[in-house]
Amino acid sequence: MPNPTTFSAVPAAASPYAAVFIDFENVYYFLKNHYLDPQDPHDYALDLVRALRDTLKRELGLDSLVLYAYADFDRLPTGPQGPLYLMGVDTRNVLGTDHKNAADMQLCIDALEVLYTRPDIGTFVLVAGDRDYIPVLQHLRRQARQVKVVGFRESVSGDLLLMLGQEHFLDARRLLPAERLQALEDHRAARLQLAEDARRLRAQGTVGVPTAAARQAAQDAADTPAPTTQDAASTPAAAPVRPAPKPLSLMDQLLQEPATFLPIRRVMLPDERRCLEFLLEQMQKFGNQQNASEIWASPFLRRLTDVLPELPDWERRQLLTHLRDAGAVRIEKREGEPHPFSVILVNYQHPDVRELNPGEDK
Predict the structure, then answer these.
(1) 198-207, pLDDT tens digit by residue?
(2) The dihedral of CA 27, 35, 151, 45: what is its sign?
(3) In this structure, which topology does domain 270-356 adopt according to CATH?
């Protein structure tokens, strides 16, 4: 009599089903740190997850029956659980620390549970690259399961790749749309150039004092009352001189400067124009109530669901990204408690904004 604990129902090598385990926190912070704090790194992480699911189906013929994403989602600035749920991904909220990604252990436990309870799953895909995963990957391979790892080359352990083999590794950059990857690379290059410019300014000493520092010095002078004739007469010759303000680095100067809009292009697609029209209506309504020229991004996207219910959540987010790329809006981060948040500002000089604006020009 065959042993009931053996997995003979579906040969693992012939199984068309996969289980995908995503260390979402690891992906998020790699994008944030490697690309030097891009706008909305969680959107890029969601793009990667979406493309991975489609790639497994299109190129390998694998249906992803099990999809888990792990993170301390309370620590992420913008909760991605909703978009993940709509993609069929179950989220595992794990409590993290500043020193260790707590997703590691839960991911390994879930992978072993799937191994022993789902004999129909023949392929295990880990979106992770830590060396800590080597034991569980070795165990999966000993159980005749196909194992694949997805990650960014810089964050994947060399020992893990040596054990697994290059043919079972998929570079996550392949999964990002070309224009999205280029936007990340451009952002990183611009930040590195700013840092290099700041380094050169520091090496030059006082040469090339930033204009922001000059404005600060002028403001300090304006805030100091001008001495009267009597004051001047009574002032000792050796009166201490107020020290000049410390020059700001170029990086600090540019971060303090108001951000500019991207180069203008026309907004042609119907959904983009509808999104822009609704945004202007919301600016008119909530901007006046709050006496502000900006609105919060997350509440706006929730309200946009009622206007464009036929679109999935990620496409509604992408509409806002397209408006930003067209120079119609600007998205800025603000510090807040318990997390930072993003706000939307409108370019009222944009031709499509001037056409659609239901209120007065700003």
Answers:
(1) 888 877 764 4
(2) positive
(3) Arc Repressor Mutant, subunit A (1.10.10)
